[in-house]
């Protein structure tokens, strides 16, 4: 007997580390989704900045279909053509000389941190091991990355955290100067904090980090897992600032929904990731690489990237109009198709209350902490979907205000 899974089956069979919404989407096309009952939703969540081309985009569907009939997985005992093509595409489009492929953003950041420490040991000795990151940052859920991330709630309760990790204040260069020194091997930063509230870095801050790294023989790591692959209006956000990191990590939008991650760096630094120092069983498999290559080639065009900037302005205009009417937001901020609306003092901590109301009105959104409504839709979301989605979001916010 065939049964249809229900939301109650999640509570029955799945580990309780997530609390998904009550609806179960079963089909998607572009920026719209349909649940088990056939109800339609406009997707402003984008799988948490993952679905860069929406749902079932023909370019990605064709890539996965074609590759699925050729080769899926070999392991890293062999290389494969899609992985080599993807690496070449990333190198030619960025500052990097070398690429390491893996399966997620957490893996990419783990590799970046391990490489930074290994590079420091190779060139300066084991005493140069300090990593500086920032409060409210987020870099993944491995034990190393969650410890480097600046939100203790994610590392508490698992025993002693790795040592040699220091946290400064984001956008406060003086707080970094107080921590950096000869023992610093790397500074890790998001060009725009994602989980920390959709907070863009300032030009002066990132330039100051670049200068401090140069002065202290430290590596600058940009975590572009959430801001990368067109999300900011450039292929990678570092291009918006004109500041080049030593190591860059990428995932989420890179696969358009297929699990894939990458670490990019220079030839000189990559030499420290010698044979046997690190690995990823699924990293660089042919199926993921083929999909990611299709996504990168489609996104890295003037039409798509200029469209991201245009859509950003449309989102901002709609959110400002909603706020003018209801006064629920203190600030609207972000870059490209990654935007955050911080709640006003009267609605402090109530961003999360918008999400179920939005679902009932037929639009999917996110939060970045309890006080910031977050949107990370498809980079190519149609303007008609933006307009309709915002109308639905406005109805949800009207209901929030009515609740008092």
TrEMBL record:
GO terms for biological process: L-arginine biosynthetic process. Pyridoxal 5'-phosphate binds at residues 138, 223-226, 281. Gene3D superfamilies: Aspartate Aminotransferase, domain 1, Type I PLP-dependent aspartate aminotransferase-like (Major domain). The modification N6-(pyridoxal phosphate)lysine is found at residue 252. Pathway: Amino-acid biosynthesis; L-arginine biosynthesis; N(2)-acetyl-L-ornithine from L-glutamate: step 4/4. Belongs to the class-III pyridoxal-phosphate-dependent aminotransferase family. ArgD subfamily. May also have succinyldiaminopimelate aminotransferase activity, thus carrying out the corresponding step in lysine biosynthesis. This is Acetylornithine aminotransferase. It comes from Vreelandella azerica. The lineage of its organism: Bacteria, Pseudomonadati, Pseudomonadota, Gammaproteobacteria, Oceanospirillales. The gene is argD.
